[in-house]
C-alpha cells in the first residue's frame, strides 16, 4: 500500500460512515460530532504551559490511558490536556471530564485535516492509545518534530506490520518516538522489524481496575442484586464473550454466582437475549 491507495481506502470508509448515518444512530453521532469540529478547535487559546494531546478510539481506550494521564497531571499540574476520540462512546462518557474539559472528535484522517488540526491545537506531545494509527496525523507530527508516543500497544505476528507487504504500516510505527507495549512478545516483534524505541510496561487496565476497586463506592441496587453471592464482572464484552459466559452461567457450576455484564456496545436486543439464557443471574 502507498499513500494514494490509503487515501482512497480511508475516503471510502469515511463515506460509508456518512451513508450509514442515514439509518444508524451511532454513525449519525460520528458525523454530527465532526460537523463543526474545526470551529470548536479555533476557540482553543494558545497555551504557554505544556499541552498534551491524547487520542483514544473510544471510552475503553481512554480508561486504558487514564492512569498515564493522571500521573502526568500530578507531575505537571499546570499542563493542559486535549482529548480526541474516534467513536461516540468516548465523547458520551463523562469520566473524561474529571481530567479535562477539552475533548473533541478527531477529524477524518487526511493531510489537510491533520495539518489544520495540529496548527490549531499546537500540542507539545501526542499520545495514541493501543491501536489508533492514522497515517496523516503521524506524518504531520513527524514533520513538525512533535514527539509521539504509542501506549498500551499489543502486537501479533499475523498483523500487517509484520507481513512482507506491510512497509507502509511499519512506517507509521516508525514515526513514534516511543512505543510502550503490554507484553514481551510484542517487544520482540518490534525488534524483528528494526524498531528499538520501545519498552514493556504491562497493561494499564490492571492499574485502572485496581484504582477503581480501592475507591469508596456504594450502590444499594447492586448490593441487593449481588446479595452476598460471588460476583463476576465482565467489561467491554463482545458477542463471542457473551456466548461463552451464557454457557458457563447456564451450568450448575455457577449456581451461587451473579454476573455484572458491561457490553462494549449497548444493544437492548442482545442484552435481552442474554438475560433469557441466564434468568436471575444478570
Summarize the structure.
The protein is α/β, with parallel strands linked by helices.
Which characteristics define this entry?
7-stranded parallel β-sheet, Rossmann fold, alpha/beta, single chain, 282 residues, 2 domains, globular, 9 strands
Protein described:
This protein is α/β, with parallel strands linked by helices. The protein has 2 domains: 29-206, Rossmann fold; 219-277, no CATH class. Helices cover 47% and strands 17% of the residues. It contains 13 helices and 9 strands. It has helices at 3-20, 25-34, 37-41, 59-75, 88-92, 111-121, 135-143, 167-174, 184-192, 204-214, 220-226, 239-250, 268-277, and strands spanning 51-56, 80-85, 103-105, 125-129, 148-153, 178-181, 198-200, 230-237, 257-263. It has a 7-stranded parallel β-sheet, sandwiched between helices. It has a two-stranded parallel ribbon with strand order 8-9. Helix 6 (111-121) crosses helix 7. The longest helix is centred in the first third of the chain and has 18 residues, at 3-20. It is globular and about 60 Å long. The model has no long low-confidence stretch (mean pLDDT 88).
